[in-house]
Structure formats: structure tokens, C-alpha cells
TrEMBL record, chains A, B:
GO annotation terms (biological process): Mo-molybdopterin cofactor biosynthetic process
Locations listed in the record: Cytoplasm
Function (record text): Required for formate dehydrogenase (FDH) activity. Acts as a sulfur carrier protein that transfers sulfur from IscS to the molybdenum cofactor prior to its insertion into FDH.
Name this protein carries in UniProt: Sulfur carrier protein FdhD
Keyword Cytoplasm attributed: yes
InterPro entries per record: Cytidine_deaminase-like (IPR016193), FdhD (IPR003786)
Pfam families cross-referenced by the UniProt entry: FdhD-NarQ
Record's keyword terms, sorted: Cytoplasm, Molybdenum cofactor biosynthesis, Transferase
């Protein structure tokens, strides 16, 4: 049992035994409200860990922060489910734009969609990173090995930052966006260069994933899941290598295939 | 091939054959911008079908609409990716509240989370619906049989409204929330009574799913996937039967077990 899971008493049905009482690990879901300079911005429904990274990653991805130096402090109030970020920049203008153009679609949600899209047009990702197909398959296997919470609950998406040889940062969360935002936040807070890295995830590759990767300049995005048409289109425009359906040693390259080099 | 999928040329890696060119069906992802009384509200990233239901369901779930009579017209502009809803009610106040308290977390996102929660406290779902375990298992099997798009792309979530004996409405989308919103919209537009129905889905059971079901008064929620702690807590408060992990004829009842009656 991890601190992200809770043991819950359930009724289990199995045709061979009928209905029986059982104990199950369930993934924790917590509402965390994010404040920037004392203004309430948003409530994230998440697992509730790495809240400094989640806050920083979300604020960077949404345009509130430009540099780690913008952050004067991050205060986590676990008891009340709040994160307070103090920022040296005036975030009023971004806040106005953000609340005005908020975009949503459950799993396929993307705040500030068109705004982000406009800003990215023409900002192609430059990278010399080249991978052998085995690098892709092995990093996905590493990702699966690292997720104790998934094995316990089947209730999280896993995401990792990796280079060709190993996983560098691992995060999981009930929301695939939260997991990515934590990685983004970690890299943002620690000024980790990303042009030679890949992002490996279990979540589907939708347009918002592409936008987040492009903002960071990550050249290769890998998922065990599939991609959407819009994600593929954006990947081609932004020169991101998009790889999906990594299962049983096989995978599919949707775009940027020149970065995958077989011996 | 369905109209929700596109054939895309990809590179496929298989250790036995190496890298080879292949054609794949990919799920369509489209940004659809929703206007209410000529005010731009939100852009949904979705598959792009049943847009009248998606708009009506979203607007009802978010509190803009109270009754189908509120809708004077729904105009779909496919070419520009827009849906314009004309509403007889003054939606200004809801719009202000909505933009102010927008809530987000990718897969775990829930607009107006606390507001919805407050409104629902004490609104327990009343229903005489009782199901045999076989009803649960069979309706999930029906759901899987109905999804051609999933078989082609593995890129959608499937959701259905059902009664004990059969599936009544089926919808799929890249976003699990979109699929639910379409069902909500369908029931809202057609004034379908829901106290004797169940909602069957492939998406995880998070708090937002619970809130949507509770708003409609649906007594039983079923998923092939798992539930979160917050969803279980809400289900107990709202007296909703929550069933997860329906796979290989087995399942787990997280709450409201008195509605599941074995012979």
C-alpha cells in the first residue's frame, strides 16, 4: 500500500463464488485549489502528491510563469487542499485571458487551446536525438516496472522523462495531464534541458499533450496508447516525433520518423 | 472505416520484421467552440459527432440550462467547428460564475467542482432499480460489441445508457466526459426518465462522473475501469450504486450494494 492509495471495503462478484466481501486498494482523488498571488485560479482533481511540481508545471504550461525565477515561493496547505504560489510577475493579464478562453473536454481538454496553438505555430522542435527501436520498447517496459500504484489500483496514468538509456523522472496521477504537468514542473523548477529527452506515457496522445511537449521543446513523445488526428497534425507541424501503441515489443511511428534509426 | 476515423500512413516497428510502412485508422480529434446566446463559452476537444447532444449535455451539466424548453435553437456550423445555442434564459450570471470557478485536471477535470458539490449535498438519488449480477456483465459485453470505432482505433471511450435488459443509447468520443455529456444531452433533449436506468462506460469513475450522474438522477454507474476514493465517497453520500472493474464476468461494487441482488 502506498500513500496515494486507500484500502476500501467492497463487494466482489465472481460467477464461481457469487457476491463476496473484499478489500481493495483504490487510488486517492483530492481536489487541490491553486492560488497565484492570492487569487484563486483553478481546482485540480488529482492524486495529491508532488504539489509544488504540479502547481509550477500547470502555471508554466498555461503561460503564468516564464522562468523559475518568477517564483518567489510555493506554500502547500495540505489540510485545506490548497497550493499558494507567489510570483514576481504581474499575472493579472494572463489570468484574464485564461478565465476568458478556458477550454475543456474531460479527457480531451485543453485550456487556452487556440492561444497555445497560435503561439506555437512555426516553433519547430530542434533536436539531434536519435533512438534505436529498442530504446523505445525498453523505456516503456521501465515505465511499467516503476508503477506500484498502477499495479495496486489500475487507477493512474504513468508518465516519465527519459533519455535513450534510462528513466530520469517518474510521476503518476489520476489525470494524464496532471502527471505530465508534474514532469513539466520538475523540469521547469530544476532547469533540466529537454532537447535530448523523450516523454514516455500511458495516456493517449491528444493535441494538448503535443502542445505541452512543444512548449518544453521535447522532441520525442511515446505512449503505450494511441494518438488522435489533431495530435498527429500538430506533431508534423512542430516537428515532434510521435510514437504510439508501444505494446509487446512493437510500436507505431505517427510522425518524425527520421529520429528512429534501426541498426 | 467510420466517419470518425481517418486512415493515416505510419511506420510500424515489429522486432520480427523491423520498421515497415503501414496504414492505420486514427480517431478524429476536432476543436469545437461552443457559443451560448452569441457569447463564446468554451472549446471542446472531441471526436466531432452528435454536436447538438454534446452542446446540450455540456450546458445542462454546467448549469446553463434547466429544461429542454430553455433551448430556442441549436445551430451547428461544421465548417468553422462551432455550435451556437440560443437560450431563452439569461445565462449571464451562470457564465460569470463558470468562468470564475473553472476547474481542471486533464483526465480528472471537473468544472465548477465545489459549486456542483454544494448543490448536490443532500440530493440523494431515489430509485427502485434492482439488478442481477448477470445484467451488469451482459450490458458491459453489449457495450464492447457496439464499438466499431474502438476496434479500429483504440482511441475512444464508450458510454451507454441502458436498462436491465438492453442498451438504449450508445455514444463514443476521445473524451470520456464528452461521451457522457452526449448521453446527458440526449436524455435532456428527449426528456428520457433516468431513475430506472444505468450508465455503462469504459472510462474511470472519478468525482465528475458521479456529479453528472447525480444531476441526472441515474442510480447505477458501471465501468470496466476503476473508481477513485472521492468518487466512492460521493457515491455513498448521494446513494448511487458504483460498480467498477467489470472484466471477464467479474466486477466490484464500491457503493450502493443493496441494488445488486443475486438470485
Amino acid at each position: 500500500m502506498s500513500e496515494n492509495t486507500v484500502e476500501i471495503d467492497v463487494l466482489h462478484f465472481d460467477p464461481s463464488t457469487g457476491l463476496r466481501r473484499q478489500s481493495r486498494s483504490v487510488i486517492r482523488e483530492k481536489p487541490i485549489t491553486l492560488f497565484i498571488n492570492e487569487t484563486e485560479l483553478v481546482t485540480l482533481l488529482c492524486t495529491g502528491h508532488h504539489l509544488d511540481e504540479l502547481a509550477a508545471g500547470f502555471l508554466f504550461a498555461e503561460g503564468f510563469l516564464k522562468s523559475p525565477k518568477d517564483i518567489l515561493g510555493i506554500e502547500i496547505d495540505e489540510a485545506n487542499g490548497q497550493v499558494h504560489v507567489t510570483c514576481s510577475r504581474d499575472t493579472g493579464a494572463v489570468n484574464q485571458l485564461w478565465t476568458k478562453r478556458t477550454v475543456t473536454s474531460g479527457c480531451g481538454k485543453g485550456t487556452l487551446f487556440y492561444f497555445a496553438l497560435d503561439a506555437l505555430r512555426g516553433k519547430r522542435v530542434r533536436s539531434d536525438l536519435r533512438l534505436d527501436p529498442r530504446n523505445i520498447v525498453n523505456r516503456m517496459e521501465d515505465l511499467h516496472r516503476m508503477s506500484d500504484t498502477y499495479r495496486l489500483t489500475h487507477g493512474v496514468h504513468n508518465t516519465a522523462l527519459a533519455d535513450a538509456g534510462e528513466i530520469l523522472v517518474f510521476r503518476d496521477d489520476i489525470g494524464r495531464h496532471n502527471a505530465v504537468d508534474m514532469i513539466v514542473g520538475h523540469c521547469f523548477l530544476n532547469a533540466i534541458p529537454l532537447r535530448d529527452k523523450l516523454l514516455v506515457t500511458t495516456g493517449r496522445l491528444t493535441s494538448e499533450m503535443l502542445i505541452k511537449a512543444a512548449k518544453l521543446g521535447i522532441p520525442i513523445l511515446v505512449s503505450r496508447n494511441t494518438a488522435t488526428t489533431l495530435a498527429i497534425e500538430l506533431a508534423k507541424t512542430l516537428h515532434i516525433t510521435l510514437i504510439g501503441h508501444v505494446r509487446a515489443g512493437k510500436f507505431v511511428v505517427y510522425s518524425g520518423e527520421e529520429r528512429i534509426v534501426s541498426d
